[in-house]
Write a structure and sequence with these properties.
Blueprint: E1 3-8, H1 12-25, E2 29-35, H2 38-48, E3 52-56, E4 58-59, E5 62-63, H3 64-69, E6 77-82, H4 88-93, E7 98-101, H5 106-126, E8 141-146, E9 149-154, E10 160-164, E11 167-171, E12 176-179, H6 183-189, E13 195-199, E14 202-205, E15 209-213, E16 219-222, E17 227-229, H7 235-239
Parallel strand pairs: 1-2, 1-3, 3-6, 6-7
Antiparallel strand pairs: 4-5, 8-9, 10-11, 10-14, 11-12, 13-14, 15-16, 16-17
């Protein structure tokens, strides 16, 4: 799959380096345009609808996050390129697919491009298809520890689990159960079942997924109507459950 790309970077030298690296080391990437500031970047994105945007964090009169706020309904993936590692958490919170440090490591850039390509190919392949879940195992029971003992729950009755510090909220069709275990505990306990970690806060029963939305990091809608965010770093894992 050919990826349609845009570079948003205020330094001409950095744009040239990134352009040359993409041309030389990343086959199947078509560069649609380059922008030197936020306004130019927004205009390019809106006129070209790219697959991926290489986005510098620090720019005149704002930063990368200001640009992303101006494109709320985005379907492209974002690869941050910056000399400042203190923005890593903000990048993740803005659903970055990848985070590259300057000076750019060529191997890391190739990995970033291929990660985005894999996501886009899987999204495109799944559109309009009758889906099968690769792991349909939802039978079985799980015990939820409580102060006076434990509660036994059918695994298939769980729609999703949500992190709440050192606790986890277990969401069923009509109620929520708070358990004094971390989300990582339930991720491990349910690893052999059709449950995917889609976000730092969510573990979802993929059998209950009825819709996948591409925007930002993406989101899923469950059969009970609940919409949950999907982190860009977790997209590939979620999509791997479907074929």
């Amino acid at each position: 799959m050919e990826l349609q790309a845009i570079i948003v970077e205020d330094e001409a030298n950095s744009r040239e380096i990134l352009r040359n690296y993409l041309n030389k080391y990343c086959k199947g990437v078509k560069l649609l345009g380059e922008a030197a500031n936020i306004e130019e970047g927004v205009a390019l994105i809106q006129s070209h609808d790219p697959d991926v945007v290489f986005l510098d964090v620090e720019m005149p009169f704002g930063n990368a996050f200001d640009l992303l706020d101006k494109v709320p309904d985005r379907t492209f993936e974002t690869i941050f390129v910056t000399a400042y590692n203190q923005y890593a958490m903000d990048a993740l919170n803005h659903h970055a697919a990848y985070y590259l440090m300057k000076p750019i490591n060529i191997d890391e850039m190739v990995k970033a491009v291929e990660y985005v390509r894999a996501i886009k190919e899987k999204e495109n392949a799944l559109e309009g298809q009758v889906l099968k879940i690769t792991s349909m195992k939802t039978e079985g029971k799980i015990t939820l520890p409580q102060q006076d003992g434990f509660q036994v729950l059918e695994v298939g009755d769980i729609f999703f689990c949500k992190a709440d510090d050192n606790y986890t909220e277990i969401y069923l069709e009509h109620k929520k159960i708070l358990v004094s275990k971390t989300l990582k505990y339930f991720e491990d306990a349910l690893k052999d079942h059709a449950f995917a970690r889609i976000h730092k806060s969510y573990l979802v029963n993929v059998v209950e997924v009825i819709k996948y939305k591409k925007g930002k990091g993406g989101s899923v809608i469950l059969s009970n109507g609940k919409e949950l965010s999907v982190s860009a770093s977790k997209k590939a894992e979620l999509l791997s459950y479907f074929q």
